[in-house]
Amino acid sequence: MSRTLEVSLGGSGGQGLVLMGLILAEAAGIYEGRNVVSSQLYGPESRGGASRSDVIISDEEIDYPEVENPDILFVFNQAAASKYVAHLKPGGTVIYDSTYVTNPPAVEGTVFLLPITQLAREKVGMDIVANIVAIGAINTLTGIVSREALIKVVMDRVPKGTEEVNRKALQAGFEAAETLISEAKPA
After folding, report:
1. pLDDT at position 1, please?
2. Domains of the chain, with CATH numbers?
């Protein structure tokens, strides 16, 4: 059975969305041998403006290289939630950074609220790694790629000398998502 996933990552310029998309694309394409298309959309501003990174991952050839209705949507802020959630595929999954998404739009699907940026501050001591916390949480909640492939790409992609900080951020994302999953299961 073929499996194609459309993933959109939304927020503001400067939040590391492009890197998140590249990490997912490389993990799926290089380490798992799947077909991948990755694209980015930016507002006119480089930092602070609307930004989105899209990834399509498929076991078959990808006919149309743009995400229209994502199966998985992650949003860093309220503006991105308001702008992108209407496009979520019915039954899809949306993950909100509850640090900044204070009024999550309702969806026909699965919703996860995780304080991604707050976790980056508390667990790692810096907001700048919130994208790495997010990618760990997203992958744990959705199983887009194998954890091993994700770790390998993150460690290859982050700037030299920041590997340990980013490893800690990735682990914070894994653990937060695992806690959320375990709390959601009936006792």
Report:
1. 39
2. 4-116+142-158 (3.40.920.10)
